[in-house]
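User: Can you predict the 3D structure of Phototropic-responsive NPH3 family protein? Sequence below.
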Amino acid sequence: MATSKSIGSPSRKAMSASSSDVQLHICGVPFSLNREILAARSAKLAALLKENPEDDLSHLLGDIPTDSQTFELVARFCHGFDINLSPENVIKVLCLAHYLGMSEIHSTNNLIKKACFYFQNNILPSWNKCIKALKSAETILQQAADLSLVDACAESIIAKVLNDPGLLGEPIRNVTTTDDDSENDENAYKPNVRRRLFVLDWKSEDLTLLSIALYEPIIRAMVHRKVPLEYVASSLFHYLNKWVFPGTKGEDEPSIHERNSHREIIEAVERVLPQERGLIPCSLLSQILQSAIILDANTDCKSRLEIRIGKQLDQATVKDLLIPAQGYAKEEQYDTESVKRILKNFYGNYSSTDTSGLIVVAELVDEFLAEVANDIDLKLNTFLALAELSQAASGGTNRNADGMYRAIDIYLDKHRYLTDREREEVCRVLECNKMSPEACEHAAQNEKLPVRVMVQILFSVQLKLKDTVTKRIQRGSDNRLLKLEEGEEDERGTSSSEEEMTKAEMEKMGSRVLELEKECDMMRREIQRGSYQHKIQKGKTSAWKEMKRKLGCMTSMDETKCHVKKKKVHPR
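Assistant: Sure. Here are the predicted structure tokens for Phototropic-responsive NPH3 family protein:
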């Protein structure tokens, strides 16, 4: 650009170069600028010209830290043209003006003063313009940080959030898993609609536009300044949803650069993730953990996410634990090792005297086992390790064992190749005395169960019946004593027949129980001698029916269908 008239021409090419011009190439674009005009505004160029009055200065100015568009704006200012400052260019202009020494000390009404005035009065008061300005500074981040421009924008953003946390978006709602999961996911994390209606400055810009190098320190400062954590958590989730989750859900394999970028983001977000229990639903924590595993995030990141899930595992659903295994050498469908670590974290940190949380998690493990039991590659040791964790932690509680029975039934069905000894090992974790009558009926006809286990179930039913009979007899005796104490001797004649009938019924029930005890005892001795194996395989399906016939309590219940309730699960 030989003259001021050529400044701003689309080609930026010199029309007629002269000896008084400085020839520069900025990002491959040639500029031809008048020395004296530049020196009048730039202290740096004035000093260079003074030291090298006749030399070509292009080699001394070849490393100007800017882009061609910003340099053209500065050049136009030097030549007396009006320039249009905006959120997208003001920080770049300030950085270049500072580099060239365009201050009031060198020349009045210089560019630094003009750009600073615009930055102070037009950028900092505005939420959107601050974010746009920060976004534009990502290519010259160190320069902008050295001039405290990044801090100024960050401080303005934080102050606005402290005044109105809703600028970060609405807090996350803990949506209950239903059949309409997709609709819930869509509605659960919407931004603050009121903000769009009443803030004239709002054009949907938010912090998720920023790179992680800017976003992480701003969020960290917000946490330090006591911004409500539920809003911080919402912003963090939106950030992951914008930059990470689409890449880990898509069918196309991300490039190495994308994987590295996503890994950096998820590790940074995890570092500032609030620790408070229940603040972030288990479903979202599970989603973050799965992404971290897919992206091969560092061990500390994955471990801390597992700890977070473990702290609130009693709030999780089975879907949250169905974490797909990764890697070409994966042997199982789901990452059961991660689930085991999560369980250990929960049990290791459970300090409440209320056992309801233990029962909830034990039932959750039962559901999880029922799902993973369908995996033909699930190892026996893995199945048992998970079952034993649940059993040990919920021991002494009144937890129903139907869920564990269902999981064992599915595992035995999908792993028909197991030996008799291995099948007995699987059933070792089944607490027969905690099974419902429906589950016991199904188990007594279940050909997949080892004979020894079926007999154990019959024994547990026998003991329950005996206990019931004893209680009913005792209750009848207590009622008679109570009536005598209340002076109802005169009604003996009326009630004597009823009492005799009750007593007879109890004696009849007691004799049936004794008969059943003898038969079960005989079955046990025969099993120990090995002589009952053939008999039981031949007539196994009638064992339970025969027992019920002897007790006089036959039902029309379906003999083959398992009545253990199966919860609907939507695998990821």
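The chain has 27 helices and two strands. The chain has a mean pLDDT of 79.
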